[in-house]
Amino acid sequence: MIPSVLPTYNRAPLAFVKGEGSWLQAEDGRRYLDLGAGIAVNALGHAHPALIAALTDQARKLWHVSNVYSIPEQERLADMLVDRTFADTVFFTNSGTETAELAIKMARKFHYEAGQPERTEIITFEGAFHGRSTGAIAAAGSEKMVKGFGPLMPGFRQLKWPGKDHGHDEIRAVITDQTCAVMIEPIQGEGGIRVVPDQCLKGLRDLCDMTGTLLIFDEVQCGMGRTGKLFAHEWAGVSPDIMMVAKGIGGGFPLGAVLATERAASGMTSGTHGSTYGGNPLGCAVGAKVTEIVSDPAFLAEVARKGALFRQGALFRQGLESLVARHPQVFESVRGEGLMLGLKCRLAPADLVKAGYDAGLLTVAAADNVLRLLPALNIPDDDIAEALSRLDQVAASVAAAAA
Ligand SMILES: *Cc1c(COP(=O)(O)O)cnc(C)c1O
């Protein structure tokens, strides 16, 4: 008999009843150190007092009103995002997938209004993940995501991963007078913590400028402070025309945002898009508190410092690099920026995730044989030390089982 919950997830036999900081407590009372953070969602860990206060204060006043009215909490969060980024304007959603849909619509509408309605093709990259709507799966295009769900929305073309094996010239060659936009994650999350080199992001910006193509960054996973800058593209010193944000921005409350320049957004006039829940007072009150905390330069500097602790073990004897060196039969290398980290594995990462459950450690698998570590951005140093020691234990047990 089919379970009452549609069985689209292969769920671990673990259920949590409570969270605090970087720790989750299971039904049986056991505590787990959480290096998944709801897949980069719980940016400030579980039960952060300032977020509880923001949520409950707003909950006592007003949860929801329709977007047919002005929503001051939404305007406040939009102003904060505009102040802190390249963007001139923001649209709020409830998820990352919806930001992909609007990014696609916005880019196509821009060219339509500019008198070039034939510019509809959006270039994406192998290994990408932009969500699970019919449009977002067509954008990513991997067989795993699209098989059985056709016909797919037309107008996407997937290229190989940019970098060593796919350069500027190859990408230039596929930009035509039909090209609408290039959509890319500055760091692929689901694809296996693959960092696009700064030089490639710069090259894409140049190509887009030369050809009048819009550049869309999907920062749903790598944004909101995860890399030690508010947004990952800031490291490369280039900005997009349109950016997708979700996951961390709500700290666990479902919230997403599309940020855009005035020019890129110029086609999205009254009546062209909408959302029932997107940007409601409750979500925006929480999002504003997350944004206020995460965008503080001192907070971002701490994220970068902690990322370095994981990587170099500056304070701890066993950073991830030395973990890799100690378990060459399990791990190949470390990837990522800040607290968006991946361990490229020689064994199936799912086995490591499973062994983590026994060791009281929560991690997430990704494609390309990568084990993802996406802790709360405010994870204390002691918890990093504990995480490294548990990872060491997990690697030893998996190596022993494989031997
Ligand atoms: C998670 C994710 C999405 C989709 O977000 P949902 O909230 O699950 O709809 C889109 N893009 C990237 C890069 C993501 O990591």
Keywords:
403 residues; alpha/beta; Aspartate Aminotransferase, domain 2; 7-stranded mixed sheet; 4-stranded mixed sheet; 13 helices; globular
Describe this structure in words.
This protein has helices spanning 37-40, 49-61, 72-84, 96-113, 134-140, 143-146, 168-174, 198-211, 281-294, 297-312, 320-326, 349-358, 381-402; strands at 16-20, 23-26, 31-34, 89-93, 121-125, 156-159, 179-184, 187-188, 194-195, 214-218, 242-245, 256-260, 331-337, 340-345, 361-362, 364-366, 370-373. With 403 residues, it is of the alpha/beta class. The strands form 4 sheets. It has a 7-stranded mixed sheet, with helices on both faces. It has a 4-stranded mixed sheet with strand order 1-2-3-15. Strands 13-14-17-16 form a 4-stranded antiparallel sheet, covered by helices on one side. Strand 2 and strand 3 (31-34) form a beta hairpin. Helix 3 packs parallel to helix 9 (281-294). It starts with 15 loop residues before the first strand and ends with a helix. It binds pyridoxal-5'-phosphate. Pyridoxal-5'-phosphate (PLP) binds at residues 95-97, 129-131, 185, 189-190, 218, 220-221, 246-247.
